[in-house]
Specification:
Two copies of one chain form a homodimer. The first copy, chain A, has two domains: about 120 residues, Lyase, Ornithine Decarboxylase, Chain A, domain 1; about 220 residues, Alanine racemase (TIM Barrel). Chain A has ten helices and 17 strands. At the A-B interface, helix 5, strand 10 and helix 9 of A face helix 5, strand 10 and helix 9 of B.
């Protein structure tokens, strides 16, 4: 099927680019003896989780128990829930997943560890745990030093939990400038210190799991790190380009849209807005644009409502008619994927795969 | 079932508030002889479309053909697609819907009218059409005056289309200040002029359809307007409160979340982010907050990632523990609804209804 036969809006995945991205990161991880455990929140498709495993990943990462349930379809040897699992219902479901594959949870509180321990005990299962450390993002994670050690010891004392090591997410480090290089050097010192603390205390450091897509190719510079969890790298997006972690040609996902109105002077309206792209802005927030239009790179996609995208053509040198189709590179591919029921894998202009986004909307 | 038995995040609809909202707007429309045709993009649930019809709506509005297909479940006497329907596949599906209920389309180009005419002819159906006029929002719609007349005449000449009148959307008018009052007066003059133009040209003005939730209770001040299409009014949200179209107590939807981390100093992380609330900011963009926390109104929900909400408690006088549950009033309820597979109708703290969001993700 040619992409012209698809109705719009439709999310297209360029398979050649995606496969190159998978290979590049698998090669990088292998060459630096880093275990690769991709975060599947970006694609939410078991078949793609399987592809990641087949190309060298040791296991998969998910954000929610609902995503773990879906990702069992990829038949992973093990999974990491990189999110504290809180509450009876989620823990019961997590135990069901843990009957089918080895599970690890990253968490940052005694309360979360205690709830997980009780659930594992009731289910007669052993669950691996990583102590989550905050390396400067200020999201989840306890501070390195006494707090992290205290958390590690608490987990270690809670049978049937098995403390396996440390997790962190350096989501605050973006770019390749002096500031980012300095932040990476600090991160490396922090991780080294935390690993030494754990070793001195006799706590496990089998797994030291970190890394984001923006810091991906600097992972080998972080001393002690032995596992990376990039997500976006499979597709990349405008944000990944903006932070210098990939080139424009490494972006695999575009959204095919139709021009539905040209009444606006020097502009047009496309049939995709915040329910198609999400309203995520380009990072770092400088320019207020919601996507790059391949057929008119100098056009400005400057505003959205739910089903309308506003494009300013004034400086673009381009003009279009109602019914014309455009392809738009999104700012943030993870949230865009989450809005589509099905997505299309293409080679050139031909549709080769149709995937249901099975993990879409698994909020719990 | 008590809401404490729900897993989180969960979108809760307070049925008492929703019913009051439905009744208030039905009464308003009736008392001003305005036909009420609610936009169902806010809730996307056929059962709620039915409730709107039962409480006085004359028909329903949708944004997409996929939503029209879903909303057939409400058994509406007729439906308006308030969006140009472009392209063979959508038009074929629209004709299937039009075999089951009377359909009207609002459009703003000869191309859209011509495509619709061909599809209707091929299907042997008559389709009603409204000429879409831009009243200042700069989205879809042609300018009032010669352009609108030309569009009206073109539609009128295209059998089997039936020109029924004019549509517009005053989405740029928000608030109750002098500027908004001035804009409403201008809008009224524009609508009156357009209706007079159409009458003089012998074009139909049976339907003059406009109105948004922000301008809802000013609709009777717009001369010539005889049909309104508010959407958000069924639930309301922080944006509706901010523009003065409702009070805080008229907001029916809250999102139930769980505190998953308190490691952050003076803050906490909740288990809902941009995949639960959407990343829509509060309008008009002054304050960067993503929701109001009922249990701590002075807390600031100031940042999100996909599954993490960052809350600053510094000035809140409140403190919470991991596992505590909070209810959050969202900025923009329409996009939040679109992210949830099911939502819960509650009375007090008891779940009385469980609805699947059937029109969710119907992008085409």
């Amino acid at each position: 099927m040619h992409i012209s036969e698809l109705d719009t809006p439709a999310l297209l995945v360029d398979l050649d680019v995606m496969e190159r991205n998978l290979q590049r990161v698998a090669d990088y991880a292998r060459s630096h003896q880093l275990r690769l455990r991709p975060h599947t929140k970006t694609h939410k498709i078991p078949a793609l989780g399987r592809r990641q495993l087949d190309s060298g990943a040791v296991g998969l990462t998910v954000a929610k128990v609902g995503e773990a349930e879906v990702m069992l379809g990829a038949e992973p040897p093990d999974m990491l829930v990189a999110y504290p699992v809180i509450g009876r219902q989620k823990l019961e479901r997590l135990m069901e997943v843990a009957r089918r594959t080895e599970m690890t949870v990253a968490l940052d509180s005694f309360e979360a560890a205690s709830q997980l321990s009780s659930a594992a005990q009731a289910a007669g299962l052993k669950i691996n745990v990583l102590a989550e450390m905050d390396v400067g993002m200020g999201r989840v994670g306890v501070r390195p030093g006494p707090e992290l050690l205290e958390l590690g010891r608490a987990i270690d004392s809670l049978a049937p939990l098995r403390l396996r090591g440390i997790a962190f997410y350096p989501g605050h480090i973006r770019g390749n400038d002096d500031g980012a290089r300095q932040a990476l050097a600090e991160l490396s010192a922090t991780v080294r210190g935390a690993v030494e603390d754990f070793r001195r205390a006799g706590l496990a450091t089998h797994v030291v799991s970190g890394g984001s897509t923006p810091t991906l190719f600097h992972s080998h510079e972080i001393e002690g790190l032995n596992e990376i969890r990039p997500g976006t790298y499979i597709f990349n997006d405008r944000n990944t380009v903006a932070c210098g972690a990939c080139e424009r040609r490494d972006c695999a996902v575009t959204i095919l849209v139709t021009v539905v109105s040209t009444s606006r002077r020097n502009g047009l309206i496309i049939d995709g807005g915040s329910k198609t792209f999400s309203s995520d802005l380009l990072l770092p927030a400088g320019e207020r644009t919601f996507g790059e239009i391949l057929e008119a790179p100098r056009a400005r996609f400057f505003q959205m409502n739910e089903e309308h995208g506003y494009v300013d053509l004034a400086d673009s040198g381009a003009s279009f008619r109602v019914g014309d189709r455009l392809r738009v590179l999104p700012n943030h591919v993870c949230v865009a994927m989450n809005l589509h029921e099905v997505v299309y894998g293409i080679r050139g202009e031909h549709v080769k795969q149709i995937w249901r986004v099975e993990g879409r909307g698994k909020l719990q």
